[in-house]
């Protein structure tokens, strides 16, 4: 069975690229629910564009801001995808570019361009669950986690949510023992995800705090990621989301790391 990507937290980051199929009947198969949530979270239209603002706060009240544009294109419906994230603010990270080739059934390829060093850094699979540009989101949160990497169990069905508990097939490759996702029964959007240690302690939590319908697609427009160990959090707001804008294939090439497609970054 092909491994698909699950909206495990940030994907709200990939975000504002959300489509929602209608499911009138109650679902009972946890794998089917997870795959439907993946479809709802990542595959609105054939492509998408969104502007985003990040507010990063630590437990001492120190704040940092990030601003970027996210571009996404599907290679095939429900399959491989391409992402380009181009940072515009603050000045010290302007021109930083993150590129992802999401490969269903295989490891994603990720690169980060650092303009100050004129350096293209490949993000290894061992680094995928580390901080994304100093935020509380991880690199893996951007392109999602393969559903085949975890075992899934439907632990509860409430009036509003399917509650799924997922455990890693390779626990040595991740820092969590399990995580639970609260998937909206109407929209199939994962509205909350809580990551746990073996003891059951929750140390990291994602919550979609605002949803808007854009071009007919329910879209997560504000997402909070909390680090419960440090007390810090990152809030990401998505604006000006658009779908089926006709993004050309060549803007997702290696060349775009150093020369991002300016015409597609303007609102």
UniProtKB/TrEMBL annotation:
Keyword Magnesium: no
CDD domains to which the protein is assigned, alphabetical: LolA_like
Pfam families in alphabetical order: LolA_like
Gene3D superfamilies, alphabetized: Lipoprotein localisation LolA/LolB/LppX (2.50.20.10)
Keywords per UniProt: Lipoprotein, Signal
Annotated signal sequence range: 1-24
Protein name according to UniProt: Outer membrane lipoprotein-sorting protein
């Amino acid at each position: 069975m092909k491994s698909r990507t699950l909206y495990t937290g940030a994907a709200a980051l990939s975000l504002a690229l959300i489509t929602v199929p209608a499911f009138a009947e109650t679902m009972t198969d946890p794998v089917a629910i997870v795959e439907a949530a993946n479809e709802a979270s990542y595959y609105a239209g054939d492509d998408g564009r969104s502007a985003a603002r990040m507010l990063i706060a630590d437990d001492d009240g120190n704040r940092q801001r990030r601003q970027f544009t996210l571009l996404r294109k599907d290679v095939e419906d429900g399959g491989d995808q391409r992402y380009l994230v181009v940072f515009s603010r603050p000045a010290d990270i302007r021109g930083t570019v993150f590129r992802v080739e999401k490969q269903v059934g295989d490891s994603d390829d990720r690169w980060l361009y650092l303009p100050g060093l004129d350096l293209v850094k490949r993000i290894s699979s061992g680094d995928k669950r580390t901080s994304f540009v100093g935020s509380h989101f991880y690199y893996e949160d951007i392109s999602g986690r393969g559903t085949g990497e975890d075992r899934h169990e439907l632990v509860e069905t409430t009036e509003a949510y399917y509650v799924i508990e997922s455990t890693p097939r390779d626990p040595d490759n991740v820092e969590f023992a399990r995580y639970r996702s609260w998937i909206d029964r109407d929209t199939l959007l994962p509205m909350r995800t809580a990551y746990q240690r073996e003891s059951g302690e929750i140390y990291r939590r994602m919550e979609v705090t605002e949803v808007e319908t854009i071009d007919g697609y329910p879209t997560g427009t504000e997402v909070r990621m909390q680090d419960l160990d440090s007390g810090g959090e990152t809030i990401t707001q998505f604006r000006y989301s658009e779908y089926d804008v006709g993004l050309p294939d060549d803007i997702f090439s290696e060349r775009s790391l150093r020369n991002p497609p300016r015409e597609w970054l303007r609102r």
